[in-house]
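Incident log, support desk, overnight shift.

02:14 A customer reports that sequence design results differ from what the structure should imply. Their input is reproduced verbatim below. On-call engineer (initials T.W.) acknowledged and began investigating.
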């Protein structure tokens, strides 16, 4: 399943029984990784047919049971449900008496810290927030990808070492995130990873429209180099017509997008404005070139007319802000 070097579970007895509430893409992968580290998955819950099949594939021979029964069987419970469902789930489990004193209760939400588990804490549980900063596929490859994956860790101070130890056993790297910083932390990851998928998918669609037969092969080396340069150099890695102040080129882009992919125009303009701001702030975009460029990004052509017509009355001028 994985090339990651984990302790052989046959070399030592399992130390914790592990349960999973929410057999989405994340929970079974984390439980499988903990199993490789010597812990023992004993129960998993899932609602949809897809989640049940995933649990059976990732955690064979582990019984599928209702959430309350998962808590009855496990010393360590992974709550791997969507962010918006987490508060209600925790409250419900606590109110029904499913939570046991001394039970390790771990959620994997990026948005929330440990306080969302307060109802379970009052019932005697030991709360932890362990969020893997990774995109999951719902297949065994996820276990391998956990090697070196950063986890956003939030827990009471007395549980800090235990939380970090669990992350290390899964092959990850713990990064302590303060409770009040969790929403900002999660927003940063969503901005970088989730929006990247949207941008790449849009770029591939446009290349296909332009006649490129293999847009993935064209974009792969370019995006790989851009990502590497950005991680190494930050804003100094900015290139392209916006950073250079090529207002005419950007205007041509907007015209073509309006013609072939109007749904991509707002995203292009928003990202181009953000790029221009950063390029100006870091001295990459010359101020004398910025005026015409910013005019284009405010939906005006270089000569001052609307980029999509003569009067600019198509309702897009509201984007100029």
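02:41 Re-run completed on a clean worker. Output:
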């Amino acid at each position: 399943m994985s090339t990651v070097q984990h302790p052989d579970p046959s070399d030592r007895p399992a130390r914790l029984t592990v349960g999973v509430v929410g057999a989405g893409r994340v929970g079974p992968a984390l439980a499988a990784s903990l199993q490789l580290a010597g812990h023992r998955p004993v129960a998993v819950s899932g609602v949809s047919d897809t989640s049940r099949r995933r649990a059976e594939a990732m955690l064979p021979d582990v019984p599928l049971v209702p959430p309350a029964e998962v808590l009855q069987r496990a010393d360590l419970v992974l709550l791997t449900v969507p962010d918006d469902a987490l508060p209600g789930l925790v409250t419900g489990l606590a109110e029904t008496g499913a939570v046991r004193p001394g039970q390790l209760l771990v959620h994997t939400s990026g948005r929330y810290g440990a306080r969302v588990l307060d109802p379970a804490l009052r019932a005697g549980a030991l709360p932890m927030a362990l969020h893997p900063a990774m995109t999951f596929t719902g297949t065994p490859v996820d276990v391998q990808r956990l090697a070196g994956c950063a986890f956003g860790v939030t827990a009471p101070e007395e549980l800090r070492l235990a939380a970090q130890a669990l992350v290390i056993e899964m092959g990850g790297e713990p990064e302590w995130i303060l409770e009040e910083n969790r929403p900002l932390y999660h927003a940063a990851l969503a901005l970088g990873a989730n929006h990247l998928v949207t941008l790449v998918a849009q770029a591939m669609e446009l290349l296909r429209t332009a006649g490129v037969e293999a847009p993935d092969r064209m974009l792969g080396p370019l995006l790989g180099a851009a990502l590497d340069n950005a991680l190494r150099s930050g804003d100094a890695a900015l290139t392209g017509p916006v950073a250079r102040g090529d207002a005419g080129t950007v205007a041509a882009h907007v015209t073509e997008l309006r013609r072939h992919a109007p749904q991509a125009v707002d995203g292009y303009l928003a990202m181009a404005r953000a790029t221009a701001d950063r390029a100006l702030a870091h001295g990459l975009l010359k101020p004398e070139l910025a005026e015409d460029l910013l005019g284009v990004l405010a939906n005006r052509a270089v000569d001052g007319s609307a980029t999509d017509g003569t009067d600019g009355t198509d309702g897009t001028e509201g984007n100029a802000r």
